[in-house]
């Protein structure tokens, strides 16, 4: 009955070069282990066993066994990297392989706090590896520094509460002993939210929620589930799936990001068209603050009781307290889902089509539109096919898409790829509706399997940045939301600004500057930008990168885009907060902070 | 710190200018027909969305802005939307260009023939052409030529055609449309026509601004218009008009294009075709209405030699970099962009300052011929009738040549010729204005008087014709000297060495003459420093913390500079005198110029006025505009007419200040 549909990417699409996937702050890792660095990289994205590399034959390959792409050869990647960025296998910029503990500052220990924590029996550690792992997110500058073995201010101690009451105790002790607490979920922040403020002189304690990962109950009558906030996206979905349910909240980082992190950053999932964003999904939130626990008294679906206190919590980015438990909406699993893809003659037509789909409110679960550069990139990431027959078919398809269609329309190719979910009949009906609209804008249906692969690739592209960094490439993604009438202008101007800034800042090779429209709303869309460049010849590539990113954000704002759609503000973007929410708005937020946390115990200094 | 940077940037010695190529040279050596028919494949804008003239009209009429304004006007006036839609398409029809390559080819052919007889050479800086070509490829381009002659826009199109560049569409005044055949031909060569005034007509404004913006946004063609709004009859740059520039910058400010390149173009004529026409116009002979037959009468012009033309394509200016840090583009995020809105204060200031800097860019690249210096010297002679001995004129010209170059003037002095050859060839070219008799050079003041018996008043006016023509050549060089000249005048007037007081006087004069010369708003301090720098560098003054001291050898320069401004000072002074002594309460705006003229003629006949130049209606209008701006005169609307209300106390004290009888009022917040 509940239909989901998936169209997903078509022929290519999906990948962004060396760029991090959209990631939401705070997040956690599956299965309950304290030392997640044992299976995860300490200086790159994701699992240690999964990475892109060039094998002895000089072919790109994805290692490990976790993903569909694992163990496969990607023949087109090397050429694409060479032609797009001017990289060469000869010029390698390897990372420091192991963490040198002596590079890590001696922890500032608050003895009284430690003594009292010991009496509670909550596990803690001051081990260098534990601390470094929790001292960063996945911003380019953070990963770049780690790869060079440079470690800045990191937490002095890590604690692992295992339930709400543990958190209450920790917060009480922190207040009593004036210790700075920084909540840590999955560590996938891309807003510098996890960086320890260098000016902080108190002992910084990282509060790792990974042990709070249980689904406490499922209420099938009301279709809700009560979950501890440390649970990681993929575990949450897997467990709910076992009972025949899902939340439908699937941010690209869902393998690692946590429920608490989603709440703290106002996360968005790719299927929000059906399930909604995190603010639409939560029914009840419990948060521990220095003033005590904040929660609502009931689970009514909507209330008119003054400003919604959930909205003080959603997006608070760890500045007010720790989210410990959340009641979320759940939905039965869809019977059927289908991927699809459409190719448009140009980006303008693609955007017009998405706008029409949004206008008619018939958007599939997920629909994305990528520009021509990403389309090419997607092609470059096709794995080697196993049989001659599929290879032949693929060749035919490629020929059709790139030659036949291009001959008909000499403009660049652009691809949109919807995903539809639901019961079979409805799915097919819905699919037809979307394809009919697409046809009006010159879109041609271009196959299901490509779409499916694109969806899978969503999870592996984040690994690509690490490969790029091995070969002098640095890059990043960033997002915004923008009204429909501004979408094309923002895309054009921001891409052009990136190229111009790179040139002005002395980047020796043309950068990759590309975008995709990833979410549609009634009144606007979410746009993702990816940019990457070859930094050979630059003395301070990270600085150049930051200047370009700053300029790109200025351009977004000047063109009517928002400061962030779902990545959050953190410390990276807080310079723009005042102009974003006005002086009074800042005052409101500050007064809440002052009341809730007068001693700045939650001292990560995000947002304000 | 910032001032310093801006000003060292202006150091004239650092100015590097391109070399010129004569495009007529090739025309004289090869077939005009083949040239007119040659293959034309210009470089186009890289994101060009091609569309023909009728598709363009449809885009304009279907635009959100035009729809919105139609519904607004319909609500306000009760007219039906269909009716207004009809009117809108009428406006587009009346306005739209119909650029056709064949017409351009025709003009290329015909104009080559004409230009070859009229001009010795048409010199173009090819580096500028290269830059322009690149700019056209990268971003939508706005061409901003100076406007001294009817020739300007045909000349521009001809040059662009010659260099295989994209042909512009040109904003032209509606008056051309009266010229039937010619009007249509101009339309087909890329002109689109604007009504001179459309006051509160919202629909007209919407259609017209949408038309310009659509062309720019889609990069269909470079858009060309004249910042000065109209031809300058005096050869001084006119204070810029902001309407079109506002429209042209709008697509960038609202994020509809990444950037827009503004290209100032300086067109300098060695001898202006409309020379006498302009002088008469300013003395009150009304401007003949443009008509095709009038154009044919102008044929006698063909037999004259008009020297050479220099066209300098300046450095393209990126609107994006101009606006960087000046305009907060976020301000356009909160209302739909198609709803017409009054520009905010920061945008207005920005556009105004940008316009001034563009006009200054035009000025800086204007080529000055030796005659310009000769005219400046002749106008300063003790007695216009007797003139100056040729040898003295030559000596002074050489002295002025150096000064002009030191101040950054773009002087084309043929160094391969001897000074006397240079002077005599200049005098020959301008034989209508100057005479040499008995070894003395003087203005041809009596030329007109021979026409028969005339009244003394008419005689005064006809004597003024060559003076005003001559002044228009001097005016070509004014932009080089105006800042030091203001300073020199301030030093004389302030009658003290105190730097602060000199600055106050400078600031007062600068403010008073803001309608007369191109003086960027809010740049008093920079201008003062620039003037000090130039005078000090040339050894005219010595500067220390408190004082400005004129050196012994500096007196000649100081004298020359302040004499240069004297006609203006006297003009403003006498306008003030008129307003105090003669102006009745019912003096209307229309009557102002004739009344001042009568007053001045009387004074000139009585011998109490030295400079016939003050008869120029341009000067009088500028003086009135300044007085209105300063609040010394107010406009009062009465029934049909607007009359002028004079604040006699203020005007009187202004007159005395200009006459040196009163100290300058302390400029508010004048801090150095």
UniProtKB/TrEMBL annotation, chain A:
GO terms for molecular function: alkylglycerone-phosphate synthase activity; FAD binding. It catalyses: 1-hexadecanoylglycerone 3-phosphate + a long-chain fatty acid = a 1-acylglycerone 3-phosphate + hexadecanoate; a long chain fatty alcohol + a 1-acylglycerone 3-phosphate = a 1-O-alkylglycerone 3-phosphate + a long-chain fatty acid + H(+); hexadecan-1-ol + 1-hexadecanoylglycerone 3-phosphate = 1-O-hexadecylglycerone 3-phosphate + hexadecanoate + H(+). The keyword Membrane applies. The keyword rRNA-binding does not apply. FAD binds at residues 183-189, 265-268, 317-323. Gene3D superfamilies: 3.30.160.650, 3.30.300.330, 3.30.465.10, 3.30.70.3450, Uridine Diphospho-n-acetylenolpyruvylglucosamine Reductase, domain 2 (3.30.43.10), Vanillyl-alcohol Oxidase, Chain A, domain 4 (1.10.45.10). It comes from the Eukaryota. The active site is at residue 528. Its EC number is 2.5.1.26. The record marks 368 as: Important for enzyme activity. It is found in: Peroxisome membrane. Pathway: Lipid metabolism; Glycerolipid metabolism; ether lipid biosynthesis. Substrate binds at residue 465. PANTHER family: ALKYLDIHYDROXYACETONEPHOSPHATE SYNTHASE, PEROXISOMAL. Belongs to the FAD-binding oxidoreductase/transferase type 4 family. This is Alkylglycerone-phosphate synthase. It comes from Neogobius melanostomus (round goby).
UniProtKB/TrEMBL annotation, chain B:
The keyword Phosphoprotein does not apply. Keywords: Acyltransferase, Membrane, Transferase, Transmembrane, Transmembrane helix. One of its GO terms (biological process) is triglyceride biosynthetic process. GO terms for cellular component: mitochondrial membrane; peroxisomal membrane. Residues 141-270 form the Phospholipid/glycerol acyltransferase domain. It holds the Pfam family Acyltransferase. This is Glyceronephosphate O-acyltransferase.
């Amino acid at each position: 009955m509940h239909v989901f549909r998936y169209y997903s990417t078509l022929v290519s699409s999906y990948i962004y070069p060396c760029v991090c996937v959209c990631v939401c702050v705070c997040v956690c890792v599956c299965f309950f282990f304290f030392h997640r660095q044992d299976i995860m990289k300490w200086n790159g994205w994701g699992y240690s066993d999964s990475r892109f590399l060039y094998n002895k034959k000089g072919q790109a390959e994805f290692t490990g066994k976790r993903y569909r792409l694992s163990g496969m050869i990607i023949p087109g990647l090397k050429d694409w990297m060479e032609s797009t960025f001017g990289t060469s296998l000869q010029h390698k910029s390897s990372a420091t392989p192991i963490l040198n503990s002596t590079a890590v500052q001696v922890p500032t220990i608050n003895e009284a706090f430690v003594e009292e924590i010991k009496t509670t029996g909550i596990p803690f550690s001051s081990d260098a590896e534990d601390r470094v792992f929790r001292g960063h997110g996945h911003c380019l500058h953070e990963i770049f520094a780690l790869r060079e073995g440079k470690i800045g201010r990191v937490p002095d101690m890590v604690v692992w509460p295992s339930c709400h009451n543990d958190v209450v105790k920790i917060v009480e002790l922190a207040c009593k002993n004036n210790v700075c607490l920084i909540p840590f979920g999955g560590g996938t922040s891309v807003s510098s939210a996890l960086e320890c403020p260098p000016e902080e002189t108190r002992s910084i304690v990282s509060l790792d929620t990974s042990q709070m990962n249980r689904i406490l109950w499922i209420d099938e009558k009301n279709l809700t589930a009560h979950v501890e906030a440390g649970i990681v996206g993929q575990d949450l979905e897997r467990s709910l799936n076992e009972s025949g349910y899902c939340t439908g909240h699937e941010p690209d980082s869902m393998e690692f990001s946590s429920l608490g992190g989603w709440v703290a950053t106002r996360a968005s999932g790719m299927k929000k068209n059906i399930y909604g964003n995190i603010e639409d999904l939560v029914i009840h939130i419990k948060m521990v603050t220095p003033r005590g626990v904040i929660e609502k008294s009931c689970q009514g679906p909507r209330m008119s009781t003054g400003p919604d206190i959930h909205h003080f919590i959603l997006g608070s980015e760890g500045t007010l307290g720790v989210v410990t438990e959340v009641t979320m909406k759940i939905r039965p699993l869809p019977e059927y889902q289908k991927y699809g893809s459409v190719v448009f003659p140009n980006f303008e037509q693609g955007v017009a089509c998405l706008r029409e789909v949004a206008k008619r409110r018939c958007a599939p679960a997920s629909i994305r539109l990528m520009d021509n550069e990403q389309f090419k990139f997607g092609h470059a990431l096709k794995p080697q096919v196993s049989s001659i027959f599929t290879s032949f078919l693929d060749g035919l398809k490629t020929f059709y898409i790139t030659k036949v269609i291009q001959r008909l329309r000499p403009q660049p190719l652009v691809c949109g790829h919807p995903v539809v979910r639901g019961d079979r009949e409805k799915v097919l009906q819905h699919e037809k509706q979307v394809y009919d609209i697409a046809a009006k804008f010159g879109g041609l249906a271009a196959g299901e399997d490509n779409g499916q692969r694109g969806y899978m690739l969503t999870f592996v592209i984040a690994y690509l940045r690490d490969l790029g960094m091995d070969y002098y490439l640095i890059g990043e993604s960033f997002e915004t939301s923008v009204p429909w009438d501004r979408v094309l202008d923002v895309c054009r101007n921001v891409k052009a600004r990136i190229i111009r800034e790179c040139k002005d800042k002395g980047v020796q090779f043309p950068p990759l500057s590309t975008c995709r429209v990833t979410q549609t709303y009634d009144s606007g869309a979410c746009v993702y930008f990816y940019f990457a460049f070859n930094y050979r010849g630059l003395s301070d590539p990270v600085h150049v990168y930051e200047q370009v990113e700053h300029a790109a954000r200025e351009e977004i704002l000047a063109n009517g885009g928002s400061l962030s759609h779902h990545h959050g503000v953190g410390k990276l973007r807080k310079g723009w907060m005042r102009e974003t929410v006005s002086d009074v708005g800042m005052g409101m937020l500050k007064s809440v902070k002052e009341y809730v946390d007068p001693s700045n115990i939650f001292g990560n200094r995000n947002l304000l | 710190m910032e001032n310093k940077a801006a000003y060292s940037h202006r150091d004239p010695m650092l100015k590097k200018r391109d070399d010129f190529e004569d495009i007529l040279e090739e025309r004289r050596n090869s077939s005009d027909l083949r040239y007119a028919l040659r293959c034309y494949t210009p470089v186009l804008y890289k994101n060009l969305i091609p569309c023909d003239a009728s598709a363009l009209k449809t885009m304009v009429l279907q635009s959100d802005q035009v729809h919105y304004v139609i519904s607004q006007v319909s609500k306000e006036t009760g007219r039906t939307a269909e009716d207004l839609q009809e009117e809108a398409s009428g406006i587009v029809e009346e306005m739209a260009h119909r650029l056709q390559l064949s017409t351009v080819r025709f003009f290329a052919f015909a104009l080559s023939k004409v230009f070859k007889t009229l001009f010795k050479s048409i010199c173009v800086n090819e580096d500028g052409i290269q830059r322009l070509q690149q700019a056209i490829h990268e971003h939508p381009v706005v061409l901003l030529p100076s406007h001294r002659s009817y020739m300007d826009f045909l000349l521009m199109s001809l040059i662009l055609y010659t260099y295989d560049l994209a042909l512009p569409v040109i904003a032209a005044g509606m008056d051309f449309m009266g010229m039937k055949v010619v009007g249509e031909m101009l339309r087909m060569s890329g002109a689109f026509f604007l009504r001179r005034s459309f006051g509160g007509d919202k629909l007209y404004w919407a259609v017209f601004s949408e038309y310009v913006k659509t062309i720019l946004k889609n990069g269909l063609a470079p858009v060309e218009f004249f910042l000065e709004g109209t031809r300058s009859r005096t050869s001084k740059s006119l204070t810029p008009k902001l309407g079109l520039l506002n429209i042209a910058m709008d697509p960038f400010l609202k994020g509809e294009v990444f950037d827009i390149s503004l290209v100032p173009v300086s067109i300098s004529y060695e001898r202006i075709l409309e020379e006498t026409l302009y002088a008469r116009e300013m003395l009150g002979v009304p401007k003949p209405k443009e008509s095709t037959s009038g154009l044919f009468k102008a044929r006698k012009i063909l037999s004259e030699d008009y020297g050479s033309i220099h066209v300098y394509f300046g450095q393209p200016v990126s609107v994006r970099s101009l606006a960087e840090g000046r305009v907060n583009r976020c301000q356009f995020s909160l209302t739909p962009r198609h709803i017409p809105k009054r520009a905010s204060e920061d945008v207005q200031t920005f556009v105004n300052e940008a316009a001034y800097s563009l006009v200054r860019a035009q000025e800086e690249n204007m080529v000055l011929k030796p005659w310009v210096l000769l005219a400046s010297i002749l106008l300063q002679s003790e007695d216009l009738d007797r003139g100056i001995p040729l040898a003295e004129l030559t000596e002074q010209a050489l002295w002025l040549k150096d000064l002009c170059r030191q101040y950054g003037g773009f002087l084309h002095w043929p160094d391969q010729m001897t000074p006397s050859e240079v002077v005599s060839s200049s005098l020959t070219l301008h034989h209508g204005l100057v005479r040499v008799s008995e070894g003395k050079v003087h203005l041809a003041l009596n030329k007109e008087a021979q026409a028969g018996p005339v009244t003394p008043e008419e005689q005064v006016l006809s004597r003024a014709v060559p003076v005003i023509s001559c002044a228009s050549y001097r005016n070509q060089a004014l932009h080089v000297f105006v800042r030091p000249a203001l300073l020199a005048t301030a030093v004389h007037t302030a009658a003290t060495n105190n730097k602060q007081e000199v600055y106050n006087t400078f600031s007062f004069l600068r403010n008073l003459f803001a309608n007369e010369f191109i003086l960027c708003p809010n740049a008093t301090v920079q201008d003062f420093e620039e003037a000090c720098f130039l005078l000090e560098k040339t050894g005219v003054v010595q500067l220390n913390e408190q004082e400005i001291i004129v050196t012994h050898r500096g007196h000649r320069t100081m004298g020359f500079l302040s004499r240069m401004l004297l006609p203006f000072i006297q003009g403003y002074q006498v306008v003030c005198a008129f307003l105090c002594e003669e102006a009745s309460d019912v003096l209307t705006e229309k009557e102002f110029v004739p009344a001042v003229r009568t007053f001045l003629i009387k004074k000139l006949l009585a011998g109490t006025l030295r400079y016939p130049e003050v008869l120029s209606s341009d000067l009088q209008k500028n003086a009135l505009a300044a007085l209105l701006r300063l609040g010394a005169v107010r406009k009062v609307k009465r029934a049909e007419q607007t009359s002028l209300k004079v604040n006699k106390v203020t005007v009187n004290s202004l007159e005395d200040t200009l006459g040196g009888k009163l100290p300058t009022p302390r400029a508010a917040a004048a801090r150095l």
